[in-house]
Amino acid sequence: MLDKRNINWKDWIACCVITVISVAYSDSFGILPIIASLCILYEISGFPPDNNKIDEKKWVTIFELSVSTGVAYFIYFMIGSGQWNNGLVIHNEIIIFPTYAMLFIYITPLIWMARQKNSCIKETFSFDRETRKVTILICAIYFYYSLARISVYIEESKMISEWMPIHMMIQSFWVAAVAEELFFRGYIYNLLKKICYVKKARILSAFIFTFSHFNIIFKIVEEGISLYIIANYISIFILGWACAFIYEKKRSLIPCIVLHTCVDNFFKYLLILGAQNILL
């Protein structure tokens, strides 16, 4: 239900217009659908005020943050450079874990959540009625966003193996979205909120998330900087900021995981998988 205390009706209409535009127009880096996802959050829930307390023992938190980020960066560097590729693979194409060292990314946030006084894990994966609405509508945006490119995907489906769409769907959900949302939003963002205020924590967590993408850094080293790479980094930063914002307002990682999965082309490969089966 629309909460008149939180939502101005003019803003609500503007958000609806932005959401429609994002479906009708597909920008190369998918920034508009991310903005539309924030609009959906506003339309359904409004934007509750930010609220956090700075930890008195913040030097302990800074140490934990620095060590955890450093280890994660090292793991992503080794994966990006191709030095660690001895993970769990099925059918020789579907990668479940690029390397078993990735378990650090999955397990560390869960251990940290279990150490918290409140029921942090339960709250982190809560899925109340409003959260379900936000999540379903995010999926709807990206489904229609992908559907608009179906002709391109049909041609692409003829050039890739039958296992590739399944591999990419698992990558977008399990290897990217679940791992990165758990670590960068569920863990790093929460640590940052113990040492600085929410707005600053969102920006810092988005920067930490952005520069964990070493594949782009390697591309800069090989090919040099370009407007495409800069725009790519901007889109990753916006995704990181948006996921932190959604997590803060809904107190659940589920819509963040879904948004991240969608941004990483889950529906694209779902449609390609469907096209391959139909064409066969």
Structure description:
With 280 residues, this protein is mostly helical. The longest helix has 29 residues. The protein starts with 8 loop residues before the first helix and ends with a helix.
> What integer is the average pLDDT?
87
Report low-confidence residues grouped into runs of 5 or more.
1-5
State the strand order across the main sheet: 1-2
Straight-line N-to-C gap: 46 Å
> Rounded to an integer, what's the Rg over CA atoms?
19 Å
Biggest sheet architecture: 2 strands, antiparallel
Total beta-strand segments:
2
| H/E series | HHHEEHHHHHHHHHH
Tally of separate helices: 13
* Anisotropy-based shape: globular
Report the portion of residues in β strands. under 5%
The helicity comes to over 70%
Structural class, by secondary structure, is mainly alpha
Give a quick precis of the structure.
This protein is mostly helical and 280 residues long. It has helices spanning 9-24, 31-45, 58-80, 103-115, 120-124, 129-147, 150-157, 164-192, 198-210, 214-223, 227-250, 254-263, 266-279; strands at 88-90, 94-97.
Give the SSE map:
Blueprint: H1 9-24, H2 31-45, H3 58-80, E1 88-90, E2 94-97, H4 103-115, H5 120-124, H6 129-147, H7 150-157, H8 164-192, H9 198-210, H10 214-223, H11 227-250, H12 254-263, H13 266-279
Antiparallel strand pairs: 1-2
Helix pairs in contact: 1-2, 1-6, 2-6, 2-11, 4-8, 6-12, 7-13, 8-9, 8-11, 8-12, 8-13, 9-11, 11-12
Please tag this protein with its features.
280 residues; mainly alpha; 71% helix; globular; disordered N terminus
